[in-house]
Structure formats: structure tokens, C-alpha cells
Specification:
The protein is α/β, with parallel strands linked by helices and 272 residues long. Helices cover 32% and strands 18% of the residues. The strands form three sheets. An eight-stranded mixed beta sheet has the order 1-8-7-2-9-10-12-11, with helices on both faces. A two-stranded parallel ribbon has the order 3-6. A two-stranded antiparallel ribbon has the order 4-5.
């Protein structure tokens, strides 16, 4: 239901399409989507969307993945997770490590990137990350420096709302996702991605901080739907059976199954 609602109420306006056309930038390092193909390639490689969330979520920086909602921390005295007044953001290395896993598994070459990193380090590193092509929105991000929650600030310009809407539209066209499921933006991207999935199955995803505030109910439904080796379903701190606690919230599909669906879609598209 959430996916259908997202799809209906998030159709791009002419103004948004114009913003995308004016601000999309591509950095090419290898042959792949957005950057041409080798003559011998018979099948186009899938794309990955990556949402590196920093901005107002950066109360504390973490250099390793999850494993649970970053608005909670372990209270040793009480022996349980407790709500805290800070949030973690994750370094680019955390996302790149997961991206390379998807590359090894699915052959990803091109990444559609969104980030609210304010100091320019994330975008500035893309020329050095030569294993991938990078597609992103080029606009000034300095105003994303943390000064409180973005929803309550009055000192931002039109790039803030336009860039969020444009990022959702751009990244939702990818075939798999790496993000932060504690973020409304990450979840909206994934909802739209499901609605337009090229494979007719749930797109693989990895979350940098495990389960998010609106993901648990979705995970319960999914865990009842998928069994066996085709889809590995893992959650953190949800108390569900058959969910190793040490694995971050993710859906990672067997590469043969995913690529079979992906290639079948490409063949049908070619026939049309």
C-alpha cells in the first residue's frame, strides 16, 4: 500500500524534470549505464542507488554499519536498548563497503548517488572511486551543515526541496539500494523502486543502520513471504525467528535469481 501511495503522489512535475535536466552530472570511469558499453557486452549491468545521509542526522559519526536504529543506544545497566537524544550518520566508507559487495554479487558498475553531505567530501571523492560510474545532482550543499532539524529552518533556499524530490526520482530508477532506512528519504526511494522494479521481485537493499522506524512492519510481512535460499532476509533487533542478529537489515537475493529476472526484463523490453 505504501508503495502504491508513493507512486501515485510522487509523479514529477515539469519544474522537477527541468531541475533534474539542469543539475544531473555524470562521472564515468568504466563502461556501463550512463557511460556507454563495451562492444562485446551483450547484457547491460544493473544500477545501484546509494543515499549517503549526513546533514541534520550527524550528531555523531560512525565508521561501521548499524546494527540498530540510531535513535537508540544500548543501556548496560538496564540491559536493553533505550531511546537517546542523538543520531548517527555513517562515513562514506560504510556505504562503499556495502556497494562493493553488490558489485561482486550483481556486477554493478553505475551508482546513482544522493547525499546531503555539507563539506563536499562525499562528492569530492567520486573522481578517486574509479571502480564505478557516478550519477548525482550538482548543486551547492553547504546549507546542509547541521544547525538543527531541516524541517524547522528558515535559512535554506530552493535547492533543499528540489534536490530531495529530484534525488527520489533519480534514485528510484535503480535496480538495488544502499541507504539508511531510518531516513524518510531512503524509505521513499525504496518504495518507488519497488513500484518500478525491473525484476518483478523486491529489489536488493542494504541499510547502514539496520531497521528504521517504519521498516519493521514491512519486514514482518516480507519474512512470511520469502523462504529458502533465493532471498536472504535478515533483520536486527526485531526478535524474529531465522533472523541472525549480527546481520544488518537487508534483502540480498541470490545473484543467479536476480540476474535471471533482470535479463528476462531486458529481453522483453527489446522485443517491444
Amino acid at each position: 500500500i505504501a508503495t502504491a501511495v508513493t507512486q501515485v503522489f510522487s509523479q514529477p512535475t515539469p519544474q522537477l524534470r527541468q531541475y533534474l535536466a539542469e543539475h544531473v552530472k555524470v562521472i564515468c570511469h568504466v563502461a556501463g549505464p550512463y557511460c556507454g558499453y563495451d562492444a562485446e557486452e551483450s547484457v547491460k549491468t544493473p544500477t545501484a542507488a546509494m543515499h549517503v545521509r549526513h546533514g541534520d542526522s550527524c550528531d555523531r559519526v560512525r565508521s561501521e554499519i548499524g546494527p540498530f536504529n540510531s535513535m537508540f543506544a544500548w543501556d548496560a545497566k538496564k540491559g536493553k536498548l533505550e531511546r537517546v537524544g542523538f543520531r548517527y550518520c555513517y562515513t562514506l566508507t560504510v556505504y562503499l563497503d556495502e556497494l562493493r559487495k553488490l558489485q561482486r554479487k550483481y556486477g554493478v558498475r553505475t551508482v546513482l548517488l544522493a547525499t546531503d553531505n555539507a563539506d563536499g567530501k562525499v562528492i569530492g571523492s567520486l573522481q578517486r572511486e574509479k571502480d564505478f560510474n557516478w550519477v548525482f545532482l550538482d548543486y551547492p550543499r553547504s546549507q546542509f551543515k547541521k544547525k538543527g532539524w531541516m524541517e524547522f529552518r528558515r535559512d535554506v533556499d530552493e535547492h533543499v526541496p528540489f534536490s530531495i524530490a529530484a534525488a527520489i526520482e533519480l534514485l528510484s530508477s535503480a535496480d538495488m539500494f544502499i541507504g539508511n532506512m531510518g531516513s524518510h528519504v531512503s524509505r521513499t526511494i525504496y518504495d518507488k523502486m519497488i513500484a518500478s522494479a525491473a525484476t518483478s521481485v523486491l529489489p536488493p537493499f542494504v541499510s547502514s543502520m539496520g531497521t528504521g522506524c517504519a521498516v519493521t512492519s514491512q519486514k514482518i510481512v516480507l519474512s512470511k513471504t520469502f523462504r529458502g535460499d533465493d532471498v536472504q532476509f535478515a533483520t536486527a533487533s526485531t526478535g524474529m525467528a531465522n533472523a541472525p542478529a549480527e546481520i544488518n537489515g537487508s534483502i540480498i537475493m541470490d545473484e543467479g535469481t536476480f540476474l535471471s529476472f533482470y535479463n528476462r526484463r531486458l529481453l522483453k523490453k527489446a522485443e517491444v
